[in-house]
Design brief:
The longest helix has 14 residues. This protein has three domains: about 90 residues, Rossmann fold (3-Layer(aba) Sandwich); about 60 residues, ATP-grasp fold, A domain (Dna Ligase, domain 1, 2-Layer Sandwich); about 230 residues, ATP-grasp fold, B domain (D-amino Acid Aminotransferase, Chain A, domain 1, 2-Layer Sandwich). Helix 4 packs antiparallel against helix 5. It has an eight-stranded antiparallel sheet with strand order 13-12-9-10-11-14-18-16, with helices on both faces. It is globular. It contains 15 helices and 19 strands. Helix 1 links the parallel strand 1 and strand 2. It is α+β, with helices and mostly antiparallel strands. The two termini are about 35 Å apart.
Length: about 425
C-alpha cells in the first residue's frame, strides 16, 4: 500500500470478532484504528488488535461525536450490524464525516415491510406475506397456508426467526419474533422451499454495479430452527437470467431512494428459476465475499468502504473494467457450523490453508469459547469460514468437500461439535 492514508484515524463502531476484518484491512492501508463499544477489552476482540479503544456505547450518538472531535478522527465505519446503521448515519451527520447512506435509506433497508413494498412497486420479485393484524384478529384463521416463516421486521443474523408448520406454533413464533424486533414489528411470510442465492451490489457515486451472484447452500441440520448456510459457490447458475430479467428493475428501485455509495446484498429464494427476494442488507456482509472479489476480479469492496469513510469517495478508478458478475473463475466459501458446547480444540486449519485453492480461513470462535444454546439457529453458530478460488467447478467441489473432512472442532467433553455441512448433492445444477 502507498502512504495515501498514513496518519489518518478511522473509528470502527463495535469490536465484534468479524470487525477485526475491517481493522486488519485498515491497518494494511496505513490507517490508525480506533474501536468504540460498551464492552470490556476481554469481550471485544476488535479492541485487542486496534491501535486504540474506548468504552462508549455505539448508540450514544453525542458521546461518539465528542470522541470524534477530541481524537480528531478522520472517518467512521460500521461493519456487519443492521441495528447500528441509523446511528452511524446520525453520528456522521453531526460530526461532518462521510456516511455512505442516509438515515432514511438505512431505515428503509433494515425494515422488511418497507423494502418489500418497494420491491413490489418496481416489479422486483419478493416473497408474499400475511397481514399480522389480520392473523391476530383471527380473520385469516382458515386462509393461512403452512408452513410460514415468522421473523422480526428489523433484525439480522437469523435472530427471532421461526418456521411454523401449524396454527398452534404460530402464536409462540410471533412472541419470539417480537422479542428480537427493535420496533416490536413482526412479519409472517409464505415459507419458500428450494435453493437460495445471494446477489451482491456495489454503488459508486450513483452508479450501480451488480458484482456477484452466489449460491447460498443452506442445510436443515438441526431440529426446530431455520436452515443455516454451510457454503457459497460462485457464479450461480441463475446469473444470466437475473442479469437479463431483474437487474434493471433492481437498479430502478435503488435509484428511487437515491442510493449513491456503499454495498448491498439481497438474499433470494430460487422459485421456478426466478430469484425471489426475502432479505436485504445495505452493509458489509459476514460471508466475506469481498475477499473473493479481490482474488477473482481485482477489486476489494471492503477497501473501498474504508476509503469512502476517510475521503467521501469509493474510488471509481479501482473498479474500472473489473466488474464481471459471471466471473472467469469459480469461487467458494465453506461455512462450518458447530453444535452448542465449549470449544477445546480446533485442528486441520493449517492443512486447509495449504490447499492451493484456499485464499483464507477466518475463525469466528476460538478454543475456550462457548457456543451457547441461545446461538442455536443463528449465524453465530458459524465457527469458521474458508474462502477459495478454482479454475474449474470440479476442483472447487472437491476442495470444498476436502475442507469439510479436514476441519475438526472438539468440545471440552471430547465430542465432535461440527454439524453436517456441504455435500455432493449441493452442487447439482448450481453454477454456470
Amino acid at each position: 500500500m502507498d502512504n495515501e492514508f498514513q496518519g489518518m484515524k478511522l473509528l470502527i463502531l463495535g469490536g465484534m470478532r468479524i470487525s477485526c476484518e475491517i481493522i486488519r484491512q485498515a491497518k494494511a492501508m496505513g490507517i490508525y484504528t480506533i474501536v468504540a463499544d460498551y464492552n470490556k477489552v476481554e469481550d471485544s476482540p476488535g479492541k485487542n488488535i486496534a491501535d486504540e479503544h474506548f468504552m462508549i456505547s455505539t448508540t450514544d450518538v453525542d458521546g461518539i461525536v465528542n470522541l470524534i472531535k477530541e481524537q480528531e478522527i478522520n472517518g467512521v465505519i460500521v461493519g456487519f450490524n443492521d441495528f447500528m446503521l441509523p446511528y452511524y448515519a446520525e453520528i456522521c451527520e453531526k460530526s461532518g464525516l462521510p456516511s455512505y447512506g442516509t438515515k432514511e435509506q438505512f431505515e428503509i433497508f433494515t425494515n422488511k415491510n418497507r423494502y418489500k413494498k418497494l420491491c413490489r412497486k418496481y416489479n422486483v420479485p419478493t416473497v408474499e406475506e400475511y397481514d399480522v393484524n389480520q392473523i391476530l384478529s383471527g380473520e385469516l384463521a382458515d386462509k393461512i397456508r403452512f408452513p410460514v416463516l415468522v421473523k422480526p421486521t428489523d433484525s439480522s443474523g437469523a435472530k427471532g426467526i421461526s418456521i411454523c408448520q401449524s396454527k398452534e406454533a404460530l402464536s409462540t413464533a410471533l412472541k419470539k419474533a417480537e422479542v428480537y424486533s427493535h420496533s416490536g414489528q413482526v412479519l409472517v411470510e409464505r415459507y419458500v422451499e428450494g435453493k437460495e442465492v445471494t446477489v451482491f451490489w456495489l454503488f459508486v457515486d450513483g452508479k450501480y454495479y451488480l458484482t456477484a451472484i452466489g449460491n447460498r447452500h443452506v442445510k436443515q441440520n438441526q431440529e426446530g430452527v431455520i436452515p443455516l448456510p454451510v457454503g457459497y459457490t460462485f457464479p450461480a447458475a441463475v446469473t444470466p437470467k437475473y442479469c437479463s430479467e431483474i437487474e434493471k428493475n433492481v437498479k430502478d428501485m435503488l435509484c428511487s431512494v437515491g442510493i449513491q455509495n456503499g454495498m448491498m446484498f439481497m438474499q433470494c429464494k430460487v422459485e421456478k428459476g426466478e430469484c425471489v427476494v426475502y432479505d436485504i442488507g445495505y452493509r458489509l456482509t459476514g460471508s466475506l465475499e469481498y475477499k473473493l472479489l479481490k482474488e477473482v476480479c481485482g477489486y476489494n469492496p471492503l477497501e473501498m468502504m474504508i476509503r469512502f469513510a476517510l475521503t467521501g469517495h469509493m474510488g471509481e478508478d479501482i473498479i474500472a473494467g473489473k466488474i464481471n458478475p459471471k466471473f472467469d473463475k469459480y469461487a467458494f466459501n465453506v461455512s462450518v457450523l458447530t453444535n452448542p458446547g465449549r470449544i477445546e480444540k480446533i485442528y486441520g486449519i493449517e492443512e486447509i490453508l495449504n490447499l492451493p485453492q484456499v485464499i483464507d480461513a477466518v475463525l469466528a470462535h476460538y478454543p475456550g469459547e462457548e457456543i451457547t444454546e441461545t446461538m442455536r439457529g443463528l449465524l453465530a453458530q458459524i465457527s469458521l469460514r474458508v474462502l477459495g478460488v478454482s479454475d474449474n467447478a470440479k476442483t472447487m467441489q472437491e476442495t470444498m468437500l476436502k475442507i469439510q473432512r479436514l476441519i475438526h472442532i472438539e468440545s471440552d467433553k471430547g465430542e465432535n461439535m461440527i454439524l453436517p455441512g456441504i455435500e455432493e448433492t449441493d452442487f447439482v445444477d448450481a453454477v454456470i
